[in-house]
Amino acid sequence: MMRVWSHRPKFLHLGLFIAAYVLGCGFAQSLAIVPGTGISIWPPGGLFIATLVLAPRQSWLWWVLGGCLAELFSNFVWFHSPLPAAFLIYVGNALGAMTGAWLVTRASRASVRLETLQDVLAFVVLAAGVAPVVSATAGSATLQWFAIQSQTFAEAWPLWWIGDATGILIVAPLALVVVQNWRGEQLSTARWMEAAVLALIFLGVAALSLSGYLPFAYMIMPPLLWTAVRFEFKGAAVSLLLLALITAVFTISGDSQFAGDPESQRDRQVMLQLFLAISAFSALVVAAISRQHQLAMLTLRQNVEALRRSEQQLQQMIDAVPVRIWSATPAGGPVYFNKRYQDHFRAVLDGFDRLDKPGIAQLLQELVHPDDTAEVQRALEECFATGNGAAMRFRWREKDGVYRWAECRVEARRDEDGSIAEWYGVSLDIDDEVRAQQALRERERELSQLVNMVPSHVWRLTAEGEPTFINKRLGDFLGLDVEDYDQPGMNRLAGAILTSAHPEDAPVIAETIGHSLVTGETFSMRWRVRRADGVYRWVDSRAEPLRDESGAITQWFGVNVDIDDQMAAQQALRDREREFSHLVNMVPIPIWRLAPSGEPTFFNKRLIDFLGLDVAEYEKPGVSPLAAAIETVVHPDDAARVSHALNHSLATGENYALRYRLRRADGIYRWMEVRAEPMRDENGRILQWYGLANDIEDQLRAEEAIRESEEQLRRLVDALPTQIWAATAQGEPSYLNRRLAEYVGLTLSDLDMPDSSRLQVAIQSSVHPDDAPSVGRALVHSFGTGETFSMKYRQRRADGIYRWINGRAEPLRDADGQIVQWYGVSFDVDDEVRTQEELRRTQERLAIASQAASLAELSASIAHEVNQPLAAVVANSHACERWLTADPPNLERAQRTVERIIRDANAAADVVSRIRALFRQSVETRTGTMLASVVAEARSLIAEEATRRSIRLDVGIEDGLPPVAIDRIQIQQVLINLMRNGMEATSAVIGDRVLAMRVRRAGEVIETRISDHGSGIAFPDRIFEPFFTTKGHGMGMGLAICRSIVESHGGRLWAENNEPQGAVFVFTLPIQAKAAP
Amino acid sequence: MTGHDRIVFIVDDDERIREALGELLASHGIDAVTFGSAGDYIRADKPDIPSCLILDVELPDINGLDLQRQIAAGDHPPIVFITGHGDIPSSVRAIKHGAVDFLAKPFSDADLMAAIDAAIGEDRRKRAERADLGKLRQRYLELTPREREVLPLVVSGLLNKQAAAELGISEVTLQIHRRNVMHKMAAASLADLVRMAERLEIPVTHSRRAGGS
Looking at residue A1035, what is its pLDDT? Predict the structure, then answer.
């Protein structure tokens, strides 16, 4: 029920339907002119069918109910049939309508638009033909059953059927048109005019025809059909409606041909109905045909339009695509070139547009590279002759005269029977591609050369591992080519391994390659390959997979590098390394190595044994390995120092050398001398530190002992009351003992001065300037020859006083006799020397005094010597006198004074006797002396005086004289006395003043002759007597003293006269000294 | 004559001479100190009493004459030279440089003693002079700066008025200063003060005439 309700049509529509139905019933009633039948055209049938056709089937119930309501109402108003009969009639009408609607919708399958002939025919047959059968049958049966108006079934049925059919034919199309085209397209003004004209014609014809003779009624056909043709369905529907109305009007008014007497009414009714049916049928069919024609025309126009558009698009496309397209006749005559082609022609060929359909040959001649023309020509000809397509590449001239590579493809289009309809061609610019290909080919060639030329062995495997390529070098090396690996019963890879690999390596290779092939990992291994001559050589083999875009392996490329020599070298290196490592561990010295950062990286076995630790065993968290190592193994007192020095070395790269205590495994610290040096690379960067530790504990102890003993020795040396020094073999002072240093106020370091040796400084600063040269000479002589140095010289004491020193030095020699060291001692002999010096000076003074032979000076000197004690004697005498004369006399002091007087008087006497002793020296002072040197000395003493007196000294001394034992001073005195006498004698000589002196050996004596050319000697014997003088002044003592001196030496002195004038003084000295008489 | 109010220094390298002279002076009741060399003498502490130096010309370290020249700058006892040689140039040189006597060895007792007496007498006089001058200097140092300015003007003979004008002070003030100067210098009279100024070698800055004109 709810379903029915939900499909309820709008009440407005339902109301309109009911109203239309009622009006239709009224219309039918008004046309029911045939008496006693009440049957006429039945417009509600058409309305009902049209409504049901348009309405959804679910709502039919509502429409049926609405129709029922309308018909029953109409029955009540007009028909006045009994209600059951009316109801049954309605049932028949409804069934008929439903049947018609159902059939029509079934036949049309879509909306019923009545636009095709098929639709119209289906409508006419099914709706107007079949549906009324149902309603006519039901209605006729009802009429007969209720005997309404006493009509029989057979009589009523045709009328009924025609009435219903006519009603359906007229009303249903109209209803459909009205409902479906309610808002149809607007008609143009021209159409409206046409419609108006047609309407007028139609009304006129209708009025004319229907009012006359029945057959004239069909005169309405032409305007009706015209309307149907021109205005199609709408026109037909409207015309039919008008026709029906006009007919009805005329019929009702009785003017129509269909109105007549009741007998003829029936026939006229039928005629009317037939007329309307035929008119409706014809109009509908014509309208449908017209409609169909219109639709066909429209479709055709649309198709033509679409075709044109698509052609235009195609043309645009052809012109837009960046290829040149042309077509030709089957014989090859050009038909079409696309725009690009034409642009190209225009750009390249002058006056292209003036050419009238240029032939292909001509174009080829003009455009194609001369080298390619013939080829292209031939290809094209062949193509056109055989009908096969062609593809060719050639160079094509472009507008700026350059040739570019193009590819031209020609294909034939064939019609259905296979004959060639047309040729199509395209030309593509492939210049870049061709050049790229050329470059690629070039590269490929180069690569191929490279692969064959590289001094490596290159090979290639397929993804499955099958060798497919080996380069020439590898081929030459192996003495075979890749095909030679094909062995029966195994794949090529296995064959290759079997053939080329060392039998020991083969399984490993197979496994490794297999692994790489499966996993795609790089293949890398070293193996021995068999050379063509059968020798196995080590190679380093590597292979990498080549992958395509998807990552799949396509090839394997591999190289073999001959590393045989390298392997041999490595083997040797390893051997050496092992040996070295052995050595490092065996040497009895702890050796270690640090990284540049200071981290210990290696301890040799000795060090590990010593420390009881290996490199990594002292590591502590949070402390650097170096610091940890130092903390662990270095004595705590030394740790800071070691750490500092080590860090300094690490920072600066300076060598590291330090002594400190290391802890032995047993916990005992031992002194070590640790040294480390960096090893650097070519750039000077430090790679490693190498260090070694020397156990110097024992050495240190020994050194300590030595130092102690040395210290003792040094103390001893310093304590000795002797000045001791040492010098190097070259004579550089290397040690001064404390006494010496204190004595001279110098230390060894004071001797270090720039620009001079220690020895020089020592001599300059400590030796008396007068002695320095001779000391220096003597030392240099000793250091040079190794002779003992021994000398007396003055040495400057720290307080600036020079004191006499007896210095001696002896060399210390090693086993080879080489001088190792000089040791020297110095004794202070100042007091002795001064005593001697004093004595010598006194002697010298006297000697010089006598040598000077100025007896006044001699006497003055003697007087001083004597006056000194005499003055004391006098003073003491006065004192004594005073002590004695004092009251009371001081006898004690007087006595003392007298004692002094006696003493001093004796001293004065001593002086006198000493003076005498001067001339009678004891033998003790005599030494073996070379007389020549004494003569030379005397000569130099007298030289100045001789020069003053303009006297030439002529001295001749015989060579090889033996030494004589003499008192040098005394003999010198004699010589000077005699020479001065000679000079004084010569002074008077005018002319050549010569004083001659000759010394020669005469038997057992040495004879010295001094001759002058003076006045000679009157009394050669007397002149030697004391106080005998020939000179104007003088005491006459000189010659007497001289004779006494010579005689005291065991010699003789005498005088002779010289020839032709002058005097000769001769004295002899015995070679063997004799005791003084 | 005996007493220890004087001393004789003997410098001689000959011990016999030292002994003998010491003995001789002792017999005359005179204290003597002997030295073997000039260096010993120079280094020795010497009592501050009238004294005399008997100096040998020939000494081992320094010649006696050279020693005389060396010590001439300071206050030293008068020197009596003794010598074994007695050459004239040496003696002349010694006397010219202020030696009291030059005796040749051997010399007589009388000569020596006379020379010693003369030398000691001279020394006494010199000492007294030195003492007076010292006192004078002391007094002079006690003067105020203004008084030291007044003193030269007064001893130059300027009138009080002139001196006051010179210093730009009133005459009364100058008179007060002058009185103070006289008092402090213990001068009995202006003449006394003038003598003192001479001894102190205070220059006379103004002549009266120059000041008066």
Answer: 43
**CB nearest A867 (choices: B19, B23, B105):** B105
Domain A321-435 has CATH 3.30.450.20: yes
User: Nearest 5°: phi and psi at A255?
Assistant: -85, -15
Interface size between A and B, measured as CB pairs under 8 A:
75
pLDDT, mean of residues A336-340: 80
pTM: 0.34
Per-residue pLDDT, B1: 45
Q: Which of residues 109-138 of B touch A (CB under 8 A)?
A: 109, 112
Can you say whether residue A639 is alpha, beta or left, with left for phi > 0 and alpha for psi between -120 and 50 degrees? alpha
Distance CA A43, CA A702 (A): 156
In the prediction, which pLDDT does A291 show? 77
- Whether the Cβ atoms of residue A411 and residue A398 lie closer than 8 Å to each other: no
Q: How confident is the model at residue A924 (pLDDT cuts 50, 70, 90)?
A: low
* Chain segment A567-620, per-residue pLDDT in tens: 888 888 888 888 888 888 778 888 888 888 888 888 888 888 888 877 777 777
The tens digit of pLDDT for each residue in A37-69 reads: 566 778 888 888 888 888 887 888 888 888 888
Q: Which CATH number describes the domain made up of A836-917?
A: 1.10.287
Contacts of A801 in chain B (CB under 8 A): none
3.20.20.80, 3.30.360.10, 3.30.565.10, 3.30.1050.10: which CATH number matches A924-1070?
Answer: 3.30.565.10
Q: From the CA of A891, how many Å to the nearest CA of chain B?
A: 12
Q: How far is A701 from chain B (nearest CA, A)?
A: 56
The residue among A601, A573, A605 whose CA lies nearest residue A679 is A601
Better-scored residue on pLDDT, B60 or A656: A656
Tell me how far the alpha carbon of residue A738 is from its chain's centroid. Answer: 69
pLDDT of residue A861: 61
Which CATH fold would you assign to the domain B143-212? Answer: Arc Repressor Mutant, subunit A (1.10.10)
Domain spans of chain A?
2-297, 321-435, 454-568, 587-700, 720-828, 836-917, 924-1070
> Residue A382 carries which DSSP code?
H
Q: Where are the domains positioned within chain B?
A: 7-131, 143-212
Fold of B7-131: Rossmann fold (3.40.50)
Range B86-100 average pLDDT: 79
CA A605, CA A585: separation in Å to the nearest integer? 5
CA-based nearest residue to B52, from B90, B88, B82, B86: B82
Mind telling me how many Å the CA of B97 is from chain A's nearest CA? 25
Whether A870 sits inside 8 A of B28 (CB atoms) is no
* Closest Cα in chain B, distance from residue A857 (Å): 11
Residues of A with CB under 8 A from a CB of B: 860, 863-864, 867-876, 878-879, 881-883, 886, 890, 893, 896-897, 900, 903-904, 907
B2 at interface of A, judged by CB pairs closer than 8 A:
no
User: For residue A133, what are the β-bridge partners?
Assistant: none
Q: Which fold has domain A454-568?
A: Beta-Lactamase (3.30.450)
The CATH number of the structural domain formed by A720-828 is 3.30.450.20
Q: Which secondary-structure segment (H or E) carries A13?
A: helix A11-31
- The candidate with the shortest Cα–Cα distance to A52, out of A92, A77, A78, A17, is A17
Encode pLDDT of A495-543 as tens digits: 888 888 888 888 888 888 888 888 888 888 888 888 888 888 888 888 8
CATH H-level, domain A587-700: superfamily: PAS domain (3.30.450.20)
Q: Is B8 in CB contact (< 8 Å) with chain A? A: no
Task: Give dist(CA B206, CA B175) in Å, integer.
Answer: 18
Residue among B19, B85, B109 minimizing CB distance to A860: B85
- The burial of A235, by beta-carbon neighbours within 10 Å (0-12 exposed, 13-18 middle, 19 or more buried), is given as buried
Which residues in A lie closer than 8 A to residue B82 (C-beta atoms)?
871
Q: Are B20 and A872 in contact (CB < 8 Å)? A: yes
Q: Is there a common fold for A321-435 and A924-1070?
A: no
